[in-house]
Write a structure and sequence with these properties.
Layout: E1 4-12, E2 21-25, H1 28-38, E3 42-50, E4 56-65, E5 79-84, E6 90-93, H2 96-109, E7 115-121, E8 125-129, H3 132-136
Antiparallel strand pairs: 1-2, 1-3, 3-4, 5-6, 5-7, 7-8
The chain binds zinc ion.
Length: 137
């Protein structure tokens, strides 16, 4: 039986279960550039083993820690990260209204999915903003 492997890359901020991921990217270089921009310290390589009927037979993932570089000169603004607690899809936003729009669309398109919001600031790292949709309402 024929199988093939598809590989893609994500930028991520930690190796924890509850991490922010951004991507996917086709090459490690693209993921690394994005990780640097976001201040993320890790890459995650996903390998999907795909069977003859295009079914995913196996998923492997490997974390790669990026070598530390000095922080860029000049302030990096806070970034907002949305992550769906149900399916794991993530996005990064500059403004809170963009995060709201993303969450609205995602929850509209995927019934019963629940999007969580995180704020990433240099120094403090990633912090969940609890009950953010209720606050916005
Ligand atoms: Zn979802």
């Amino acid at each position: 039986m024929m199988t093939r492997m598809e590989t893609f890359w994500m930028a991520c901020d930690s190796t924890e279960q509850l991490r922010a991921e951004y991507g996917p990217f086709h090459t490690r270089a693209e993921a690394e550039v994005e990780a640097r921009k976001l201040g993320f310290g890790f890459l995650l390589r996903y390998e999907h083993v795909i069977g003859a009927e295009d079914d995913i037979q196996e998923v492997r993932c490997v974390f790669i820690e990026l070598p530390q570089r000095p922080a860029p000169v000049g302030g990096i603004r806070r970034k907002l990260h949305t992550r769906c607690a149900t399916c794991g899809e993530t996005a990064v936003h500059d403004e809170s209204w963009q995060a709201e729009v993303w969450a609205d669309i995602h929850e509209f398109e995927h019934t019963r999915h629940r999007v969580r919001l995180f704020e990433l600031t240099r120094g403090e790292g990633l912090k969940e903003i609890i009950d953010w949709r209720d606050q916005c309402a």
